[in-house]
Task: structure prediction
Amino acid sequence: MSIDKDTAARIAKLARIRVEEGELDALAGEFNTILGFIEQLGEVDVEGVEPMVSVTPQRLKRRDDVVTDGDQQAKILANAPDAREGFFAVPKVVE
Result:
């Protein structure tokens, strides 16, 4: 697959990237280089290779999923400029 100047301009537009007219040829060349690398990856024989999540085999630490209130209301409200009755107090914005 080859990317031409018009296709590079369309890709730039879809990505909302402003590319000057004079830079479109270079951008198309970069896209073609990237596609070449992808084609090389497709040539690698991966038959029988198991997919991996990490480069080191390890299990994630797990914890019980318990719902709590966090018990930090006082700490959180201490940062508020105005707190009343255990809640944030904000100016009225609706009449």
Helices lie at 5-14, 24-42, 73-78. The beta strands are 83-84, 87-88.
